[in-house]
Amino acid sequence: MSETIRFILNGSPVTLDTEADRTLLWVLRTDLELTGAKYGCGAGLCGSCTVVVDGAAVRSCLTSLGGVEGKDVTTIEGLAQSGELHPLQEAFRKLGGFQCGYCTPGMIMNAYALLLKGPSPGRDAIVQGMESNLCRCSAYTRIVEAIETAAAELGGSHE
Ligand code: FES
Ligand code: FES
């Protein structure tokens, strides 16, 4: 049965009339045509579908649309501002924090939430905070370097 679901998506209000038990990932990718969040495992294991809800990283493959009613959702499409890449995106690009790129939106959104929690994590905290996001290309070393670089650049002024 359809319901009216309202939430904030990348800073703008969204209203959808659809089933509340649909997964957020599919609603983003189909109804809203935001294909940055990726379908990897569909079971909460890989992190390729990660988005940020009210400041915390969530796996959108396991999140119902009804679960974000009234909340603030940020996807990879919402990070760049005024045509400028977010420092995390720029650091991944500069340092080659990817190979095929399939895991990259989820990696960046998980890192974004990590830096929201504490803007200057050390390497160990970054590794620990990112360990449940999987990269089949094994670009882990450069991913961690990119996050360290962005964290240093943001220097506590993370937005
Ligand atoms: S697709 Fe969501 S965790 Fe793998
Ligand atoms: S860059 Fe290919 S899965 Fe991570």
Protein traits:
Ubiquitin-like (UB roll), DNA polymerase, domain 1, about 160 residues, alpha+beta, binds FE2/S2 (inorganic) cluster, 5-stranded mixed beta sheet, globular
Describe the structure.
The protein has 159 residues and is an alpha+beta fold. It contains five helices and five strands. Helix content is 34%, strand content 17%. The termini are far apart.
Computed CA radius of gyration, to the nearest angstrom: 15 Å
Q: Count the helices. How many?
A: 5
CA(first)-CA(last) distance: 38 Å
- Biggest β-sheet description: 5 strands, mixed
Assembly state (oligomeric) = single chain
**N-to-C order of helices and strands:** EEHEEEHHHH
- Distinct ligands: FE2/S2 (inorganic) cluster
Estimate the global geometry from the Cα principal axes. Answer: globular
CATH topology of the largest domain: Ubiquitin-like (UB roll)
User: Within the largest sheet, what's the order of strands?
Assistant: 2-1-5-3-4
Strand fraction equals 15-25%
Present the secondary structure layout.
Blueprint: E1 2-9, E2 12-19, H1 24-31, E3 50-53, E4 56-59, E5 72-74, H2 87-95, H3 104-117, H4 123-130, H5 140-154
Parallel strand pairs: 1-5
Antiparallel strand pairs: 1-2, 3-4, 3-5
Helix pairs in contact: 2-5
This protein binds FE2/S2 (inorganic) cluster (FES) (2 copies).
Briefly, what is this?
With 159 residues, this protein is α+β, with helices and mostly antiparallel strands. It is built from 5 helices and 5 strands, in the order E-E-H-E-E-E-H-H-H-H.
